[in-house]
Specification:
Elements (H helix, E strand, L loop, with lengths): L1 E4 L7 E4 L3 E3 L2 E3 L5 H6 L9 E7 L4 E7 L6 E7 L1 E8 L10 E7 L5 E4 L3 E7 L4 E7 L8 E3 L20 H4 L4 H9 L1
Antiparallel strand pairs: 1-2, 2-10, 3-4, 5-12, 6-11, 6-13, 7-10, 7-12, 8-9, 8-11
């Protein structure tokens, strides 16, 4: 497994495993504490694992947590997704930077999303399973959502959004979220 820094987002990493394929399918390690530790992250900091299943065109995000934020490891374990990370940390050298990834069950690559960054994705296949490993318990009172189609972010979503939650559909603009954070 190799870890590569994501230049658009300070502190973000892409972890790429080495799948071993044969006539039966494949096997690969999707998490390695030593590799995570080698880039300065504490593997023991991750306290919850979750999974979501989406159909083609479903869009989830852009989400982040208020307060201390939430760091997470995101992997598409089945299918394929278009994954988005936006740096919303005012003191970051990559503030407002955006990074885009195609994550898939074929590669099993994982993106590390630092606390204070927004995250979202769109399912590109009929079924996509996305696994999340987060560094603190989820508190719905800290949920923050930003409009997926905010023109200031100009995320190039590859498909029309066929379905999303009411929370995502009604999300405020980035400017509104930033204004709330300041005030």
């Amino acid at each position: 497994m190799k870890a590569t820094e994501v230049p658009e987002i300070s502190g973000a990493y892409l972890f790429e495993p080495t799948p071993h394929a044969d006539e039966r399918g494949f096997f690969c390690r999707t998490f390695d504490a030593d590799v995570v530790r080698s880039v300065g992250l504490d593997p023991a900091a991750f306290v919850q694992d979750s999974v979501s299943r989406s159909v083609r065109g479903v869009l989830r995000g852009l989400h982040l947590r208020s307060g201390a934020g939430e760091a997470k490891l995101v992997r598409c374990s089945y299918g394929e997704i278009f994954d988005v990370v936006v740096d919303l940390r005012p003191d970051s050298p990559t503030y407002l930077g955006r990074a885009f990834f195609e994550l898939s069950g074929e590669t099993q690559a994982t993106v590390y999303v630092p606390a204070g960054c927004a995250h979202g994705f769109q399912s590109l296949t009929e079924t996509s399973d996305v696994s999340y490993r987060i560094d603190r318990p989820h508190d719905p009172a800290e949920d923050v959502t930003i409009a997926f189609d905010d023109p200031d972010l100009a995320v190039p979503w590859p498909l029309p959004a066929v379905s999303m939650s009411a929370r995502d559909r009604e999300a405020p603009s980035l400017a509104e979220v930033l204004k709330r954070r300041e005030g």
